[in-house]
Each structure stands twice: as C-alpha cells, then as structure tokens.
Amino acid sequence: MNINQVINVCSVLLSGIGTLLEIFFITLVLAVPLGLIVALARNSKCRILSWLIKNYILLIRGTPIMLQIIVVYFCPYYLFNVTYDRFLAIIIAFTINYAAYFAEIFRSGIESIPEGQKEAAYTLGFNKVQTFFEIVLPQVIKNVLPAMSNEVISLLKTTSLAQIIGVTEMFSLAQKQASYNFSIIPLCIAGVYYLILIFVVSIVFSYFEKKLSYYR
Questions:
Q1: Number of domains the chain is built from
Q2: 173 burial type by CB count under 10 A (0-12 exposed, 13-18 middle, 19+ buried)
Q3: pLDDT tens, 12-21?
Q4: Which among 3, 84, 90, 139 has the fewest CB atoms less than 10 Å away?
C-alpha cells in the first residue's frame, strides 16, 4: 500500500469510530446502574429473587457473548415473527452481558465494606438508604475501579462483535479494507486506534482513582 492508500484507510476507519463509541457509551450508561441493581438483588433476602439473579449471572458468564448477540437479535423473529433494529439488538445484548459482570464486581465491593461501618451509621441516625448511598457506595466505587477499568476496556474491544449481525463499526471496516487492498495494514491501523482509545480510558480511570484516594 502506498501513502495515499494508507491515508484513505485511516479516513475510512475514523468514520467507524463514531459507531464504536456510540455502542461503548450507551452500553456503559445502561449497564453500570443495571449492574448495581443486579448486585443488590443478588444480595437480597428474598431467596427467589436472589436465585433468579444468581442463575442469570451464571447463564451470562457461562455462554459466549457472540451467542447472546445472536439470540437477542434472532429469537424475537423465530418466536414471535418480530424484527427490530440491529443496533438496538447490540445495545440490549451488550447491556445484559456487561450488567452481569459489573454486578459481580459491585457485589464484591459491597461485601468488602465492614459491617461495623453500617452499624455505626445506623447508630448515628442514618437509615439504610442513606447508609448505602453516603457511606457504602463511595467506598465501593473506589474499591472496584481497577476491576471496572478492565471490564470497560474489554467492552471497548468487544464492540467489534457488532458486525456479527451486520452493524458496521471500525473493525468491520478494517476487515473490508484489508480484503479490498490485500493487506493487513488496515487491521494494524485499527489496532492503533484501539490502543489510543484504551490509553484514553486508562488515563480517565487513573484520574478517578487519584481523586478517590482520600478513602485510604
């Protein structure tokens, strides 16, 4: 490939980053709070609810996300003869998947907080909701940030699986360009773009870890 072809490939791949980031941010906005809700439900005293959530997490963690994407998109058609937008299917599949992983991270963070802190908060007049949001949650967020960063980076790379059901994003464009130009250079350029995005995400998490260091 000559320099003009490389520049053209870079431009084409940049056009796919928008879709990648859209999938990434929408999934995060939905999956993080859902993961916290799932974590609380997992620790619920209601045995039926806890059992259902436990099996949901087992199912999600025990099956490939590729299969989950296919099921989310094609099952409504085969069961109810209903079709819907592919992008929406990707968002649903990614949200369901990452909510399960975030839930386990949040659950470990919640369980790491000593019971004595909760009892002290109750003694000071805090109710359960105030104790959770003002005492427990800030510490949980600080404790789970390293694990969360790993999952967030994983999500950034997993967006490439959107092409399974025909959603065009950066990596699918890189594959097409590699085939068209009979070269792996487009794939290498895509790798550089991923590296840059992951570097930015790492910097953001490092910043928040420093901001929350006062809990040490």
A1: 1
A2: buried
A3: 899 889 999 9
A4: 3
